[in-house]
Amino acid sequence: MPETRALPTARIAPSILSADFACLGQEVRDVAAAGADWIHFDVMDNHYVPNLTIGPMVCEAIRPHVDLPIDVHLMVEPVDSLVPMFAKAGANIITFHPEASRHVDRTLALIRDQGCQAGLVFNPATPLEWLNHVMDKVDVILLMSVNPGYGGQSFIPATLAKLRQARTLIDRHVQSGGQPIALEVDGGVKIDNIREIYAAGADTFVAGSAIFGQPDYTDVIRRMREQIALVQA
Ligand code: DX5
Ligand code: ZN
C-alpha cells in the first residue's frame, strides 16, 4: 500500500530495563555509541505495576555518561512528587500513566514547569480519549504494546490500529497549528516487527530485550533502521 503522509524521522530509545544493572554507565555509553537517540528509563514502584526498579538517584548517576535525552517512563502512583526529583536528576522527557495521576492536566503542567517535555502513556486497554482536553500540553504520546511491568513480553498486535488512530490525532493537531508531538511505542519491539510499527505511525521506538539481549548493539540498531528505511522506499 503506498504511503501518503510525510514520514517522520525515527528515533530508537533503548530501555535500560534489560541492561546489565551492575554496569549501567558503560551500558548507556555503549548504546549511545551504537546510535541510540534517547535513553528510555523505566521507573516501577511495585504499586502501580508489579515490579520495582530504579529511581532519581540512578538517573543522576547515568546522566554524566551520555548527552542523549533521558526519557523517564513513570509507572508509579502517585506521580507528582517524583517529577521535580527526576527533573533535578537530569531527565529530559517525563511520561506518566493518566490513571496514576489524580489531576492529569496539573501533572502535565508540572513536568513542563520543571523544564522537561511531558507525555502521557496509554496501557493496551487505556483509551486515547484521555487526550481530548490536553493535546496542547503533551510533547509525547507513548502507547504501550505490552502491559507494563516487565521487559521481554510479546508485542500486542491491536497496538497497530491504536497507533494509526494516534497518528491521525497528532497530524490533525499539527495541521491546525499545534505543537509537534512524538508518537512512541513501548514493548515487544524487535527487528522483525519494527517496519510495520513504523508504517502504522510510530516515530519513537523503545526496545529493551531486543537490544540489550544481543551482543552487538550497533548491529541491532542498524538493522532496525534498515527495516524502517524499507517503509520510506
Ligand atoms: C515495560 C517497560 C518497557 C520494557 C520494554 O513495562 O515499560 O520499556 O523495558 O522491554 P522490551 O523491549 O523487552 O519489551
Ligand atoms: Zn517503558
TrEMBL record:
Cofactor note text: Binds 1 divalent metal cation per subunit.
Pfam family, one: Ribul_P_3_epim
Pathway(s) where this gene product acts: Carbohydrate degradation
Reaction(s) the record says it catalyses: D-ribulose 5-phosphate = D-xylulose 5-phosphate
Residues the entry annotates as binding substrate: 15, 73, 149-152, 186-188, 208-209
Cofactor(s) essential for the protein: Mn(2+); a divalent metal cation; Co(2+); Zn(2+)
Keyword Plastid: no
One Gene Ontology biological process: reductive pentose-phosphate cycle
Family: Belongs to the ribulose-phosphate 3-epimerase family.
Entry-linked NCBIfam families: PRK05581.1-4, rpe
Classification via PANTHER family: RIBULOSE-5-PHOSPHATE-3-EPIMERASE (PTHR11749)
Protein known as: Ribulose-phosphate 3-epimerase
Taxonomic lineage of the native organism: Bacteria, Pseudomonadati, Pseudomonadota, Betaproteobacteria, Burkholderiales
